[in-house]
Amino acid sequence: MKRHILTGAPGAGKTAILRRLEVLGHCVVEEAATDVIALRQAEGEGEPWTGARFIEDIVDLQRRRRTRASALPVSDQIHDRSAVCTHALCRFLDRPIPPALSRELEDIAAHGVFQRQVFFVRAQDFITPTAARRISLEDALRFEAVHVESYQTFGYDLVWIEPAALSIRADQIERRINTPCP
To answer: For residue 156, which phi and psi values (nearest 5 degrees)?
Structure first.
């Protein structure tokens, strides 16, 4: 099983790319942070990212989704973010790395869970705010830089997906996934 990571700055177009790849028949494993935020907001929490268990809840949901996806009868999966993104989120929010996240990072490294090449969707020159995405373009670019540092720290190689039309960006990823490993 090849598990590919797709990541990038908030608002870079990652979700649209994933939807296109999913429609083309690729197995997509959803990200956790946005869903944790949406749930907490539905429960009345205005800014869930300030909560004490925010990071741990993301790690738990990421792990459950990854574990469930492991049982699927597919040869390739595209994971919308990973625990390395959660590491970047901790750094961006200036929060300590909780033990649950450290264990998850150690586990995915020890078991070679993900392909070493990560598809990194570069930020565009605008951002569309949502209920879960309340970030300025300037902060999104800063968050992008933190993501790059985290992935490089953990030894991943970044495959840059530059701003372009949706079909072009998705095709760049699909060509690499469909290319057999040497």
So the answer is: -90, 150
Distance between start and end Cα atoms, the chain: 15
* CATH number of the domain to which 71 belongs: 3.40.50.300
Cα 121 to Cα 59, 124, 162, 169: the distances in Å are 22, 9, 6, 8
Neighbours of 116 (CB within 10 A): 10
6-17 pLDDT, tens digit each: 999 888 899 999
pTM above 0.85, yes or no: yes
Maximum separation of any 2 CA atoms in the chain, in Å: 51
What mean pLDDT comes out for the span 117-123?
95
Q: Residue 79: phi, psi to the nearest 5?
A: -95, 125
Tens of pLDDT, residue by residue over 146-172, are 999 999 999 999 999 999 999 999 999
Q: Looking at the 3D structure of the chain, how many domains does it have?
A: 1
Helices (H), the chain: 14-23, 33-42, 54-70, 83-92, 99-110, 137-153, 166-177
The separation between CA 108 and the C-alpha centre of its own chain, rounded to angstroms, equals: 14
Domain assignment present for residue 109? The answer is: yes
